[in-house]
């Protein structure tokens, strides 16, 4: 067994699993596992608390000089651990396998120490972080240091002002567009009324002319 975070076959980043702990909420941590050899390397992830964590993939084969991402998800918890301390641990086992081996082809004794294969192991600790701690860290980074925090705040303020100005301009343009539509509708309704009135006058004129024609044509 070798030190935390790396062994002769693979390297693991980060070397500690850190989860933001919130009641009734899941949290996850990604591990990057890299094959440092010219061989195909199979790995398997084990934990002391398998019911608390969901690991995908928990077993896989990495090609030479390649890498993969393991996502470890902390299931939603109903109570806080004492003093936010976590005693859970993870163990990542790795071993060389024949070229072009698929994960489904791995023998059941691949990660058994008595199988005669060279099996390397790497232990990973687990720590919980409260959301308030991360918030204080971000606020500290925004107010301390080389002034980048004040620049960030001023940038955010400027973006908010530009957003408000854009929203106000959009509302003004929408109001002007509504006024144009309203005037156009009024003009169209006025023209329609004029045409109807002209048609009615013309029709009345035709009727009167027809009556006069009948009156003049009738015998006295």
Automatic annotation (TrEMBL):
Coiled coil: 156-183
InterPro entries found in the cross-reference section: Ig-like_fold, MSP_dom, PapD-like_sf, VAP
Region: Disordered, residue numbers: 131-152
Listed transmembrane segments: 193-212
Pfam families assigned: Motile_Sperm
Signal sequence extent: none
Annotated Gene Ontology cellular component terms: endoplasmic reticulum
Alphabetic keyword roster: Coiled coil, Membrane, Transmembrane, Transmembrane helix
Location of the MSP domain: 9-129
Matches recorded under PANTHER family: VESICLE-ASSOCIATED MEMBRANE PROTEIN-ASSOCIATED PROTEIN (PTHR10809), VESICLE-ASSOCIATED PROTEIN 2-1 (PTHR10809:SF42)
Family the entry assigns: Belongs to the VAMP-associated protein (VAP) (TC 9.B.17) family.
Designated name of the protein: Vesicle-associated protein 2-1
Species assigned in the record: Cardamine amara subsp. amara
The organism's taxonomic lineage, starting at the top: Eukaryota, Viridiplantae, Streptophyta, Embryophyta, Tracheophyta
